[in-house]
Write a structure and sequence with these properties.
By secondary structure, the protein is mainly alpha-helical. Helix content is 57%, strand content 6%. It has five helices and two strands, in the order αααββαα. Strands 1-2 form a two-stranded antiparallel ribbon. A hairpin with a 3-residue loop joins strand 1 and strand 2. Helix 1 crosses helix 3. The protein is globular.
Length: 127
């Protein structure tokens, strides 16, 4: 599992970690039912604070992507590719809206936004 943390980034480390784990799942490199490394182990491997990894894991749990099982660790939800729930769809729409609005404000038109989105999808699905 290749995760790279950019300490000089404006994006918080826990967000970088949760985003990269989501991308690994989207690329199929991690699958439903896979057990993630322990908080202590991953923190040590990445050279970050355990609380940072814990925060990332709890963020993924809040999003319904992993389950944190006491004394067993974090497990990728086995049902995550079984279809999206209404609640998950609404959350994604709410998270995408400001990003799309920002793109429009910065000068991208609808066609450019669609092209950019298609490029990102192709990049994620390449692996």
């Amino acid at each position: 599992m290749l995760i790279q943390i950019e300490t000089s980034s404006d994006i918080p480390i826990y967000t970088q970690l949760s985003n990269q784990l989501i991308e690994l799942i989207a690329r199929g490199q991690l699958k439903g039912g896979d057990v993630l490394p322990s908080v202590r182990s991953l923190a040590s491997d990445l050279g970050v604070n355990m609380h940072t990894v814990n925060k990332a894991y709890h963020e993924l749990e809040r999003k319904g992507i992993i389950r944190i099982v006491p004394k067993s660790g974090a497990v990728i939800d086995p049902s995550i590719r079984d279809g999206i729930s209404h609640e998950h769809r609404l959350r994604i729409i709410e998270e995408l809206k400001p990003i799309i609005a920002e793109a429009i404000v910065l000068g991208l038109n609808a066609e450019e936004i669609q092209h950019l989105t298609s490029s990102i999808l192709l990049d994620i699905k390449e692996v």
